[in-house]
Every structure is written in C-alpha cells, then in structure tokens.
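Our consortium's second objective concerns turning raw sequence data into structural hypotheses that experimental partners can test. To show how far this objective has progressed, the report includes one record in full. It was chosen at random from the queue rather than selected for favorable results. The single chain below, 142 residues long, was entered without modification.
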Amino acid sequence: MNDRLPPELLARLAADPEGRVRSWVIQWGRDVPDAVRRMLLTDTDPDSEVREAVAAHPGLTTGLRDLLAEDPDMFVRNATAARTDTPADLRERLVAGLEPDSPVAEWLLSFGRSTRTCPPRAAVLPSLTRQQAEALPARAGL
C-alpha cells in the first residue's frame, strides 16, 4: 500500500462498496489509521472476501476470531483455522467441519492452512525414434 495515502482516502477506501477494495485495505493497509482499522476489524462485512481478509489479519481480536470461526463461508473459517493464535481444539474443529464440494475447493482450502501438495508428476513418456513414431498410427489402426 502506498504509505503516502492520506488517512481520509484510506477511510473512503475502507468504506468502498466494492468488497475487493475493502479487502485490499485490510490485506495491505498495515499502517492505516486506528479508526479505520477498528472499523474494518470490528464490523462483520457482507462480502466473504472481506471477512476472509479480516480473518487472516494479524491485528484481529480473539472475539472477532471466534465470531469468524462460525462464519457460513468455508474460506473464512479456513482462514480462521490457519491463524497461529487459533487454539488447537478450535482449529481441529474448524478443519473437520470444512466440507468442500469438490476436489478443487479442497485444494484451494489447503493453501490457507499450508497443507497443499502438488499433484504427482505425470509419467515421462519414453523417447521414440522416428521409425517408432511413424509406426504408431498403423498400430492404432489408422
């Protein structure tokens, strides 16, 4: 974030109707004025992207962390589980309660918890000589 942005502009950005703008202020506005930070970190936002950014913010209070742990959005709960200050029993309950609706969602959730694993590498096909490559269509009946 540009550290030269005046506090009035940060306050306007924090109240922007676009959730991505508010999320950006939360994620990158480490030096926002206290009043703006309090507004962002104490109000529950209707936009799940903003709530997810709030859940990951290092200045989050334990009360709001516990509130976000009950959020209906699985990515907000995942961000809450990924916090280092989340008690182990709460983290385990949150992770156990995440029920992604697809393998892609599970993979995306793993990024927040740093448990992601890349899919296994595909087998490397053996190198073929030109003669072997030219014989393939005939073997396939083409």
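The partners drew two points from this record. The longest helix spans residues 103-113. The chain has one domain: 7-118. Both points have been shared with the crystallography group to help prioritize constructs.
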